[in-house]
Structure prediction request, 352 residues.
Amino acid sequence: MNFKVKKSEIVFKGKVFDLQVDEIEYESGNKAVREVAVHPGGAVIVPVKNDGKLIMVKQFRYPFQKFMLELPAGKLDKGEGPSKCAERELKEETGYSSKNISKLGAITTTPGFCSEVLHIYLAKDLQEGNHNREEGEYGMELFEFTLDEIEEKITNGKIIDSKTICGIHLYKNILN
Amino acid sequence: MNFKVKKSEIVFKGKVFDLQVDEIEYESGNKAVREVAVHPGGAVIVPVKNDGKLIMVKQFRYPFQKFMLELPAGKLDKGEGPSKCAERELKEETGYSSKNISKLGAITTTPGFCSEVLHIYLAKDLQEGNHNREEGEYGMELFEFTLDEIEEKITNGKIIDSKTICGIHLYKNILN
Prediction:
């Protein structure tokens, strides 16, 4: 590369992410600062019922102070692999479990300033059960939609979450 | 809602985002912390040439220390509207300009902890010109791909950027 890292510091250690601030110097001598939200990554699940409907969750998103419609998803626990995380979050958020989970891909959510990678899984042959939500997940509601209904919600701005649109995109690509 | 904000503090003011840490208290009496990367938002451009090919950029992404293939995009300048930002970033990053820019939608990149909203625009009738990149955009390269080539790269993991996959998804939905 055309720069060197002169200093790297974790200026904040958070529950969800740490904040790293690096000072870099280009070959030209110019200096710059790079801020990185250091995130452990997570898993996103595309849960498809035998009738073809997809299960989604509506949950309160603090940065926007509103409820948003999304695919189930969550952060990797320490030492947890992404497929285990997908199984766990599916169960925790929806109550459903699955022994038929396969990988659809992985995405970076906002690679300019955040190291988050989300691994996306398809879950089929769903078994109904009880969910196990955390207190912060108060008010979370389950919905079932056909793919056409989801596309309509993407088109009219009712679904705006990027991991959800990416999950739908990857799922549709294996159907074609 | 079932909580009150007891304290809200900007603990870091950055170039790209600020870090806000809130202490909240649920009706139950339980307390929790909410970390928010406060981001101004930005614009993403889906630039389509008259021959149907899309213009993409490959650029160095510091959090991953590697080059990634993405749609052109950038942060809103202070006071700048998203369509102006789209015009400006298209020109800066690719050299192309367009008087035929229309909105495809908007996405949240990672709504659990970041307030970033990206507005996605379709740009047609492109006029070639000179780009005007910043030093941090060193090594940025332009590519042209058909939609089929882009889908292949999404499927094989060569394109993993979420705003790019969302931009392609929204663009394909207006073609159908």
Remarks:
- The two ends of chain B are 40 Å apart (CA to CA).
- Helices of chain B lie at 82-94, 147-155, 162-175.
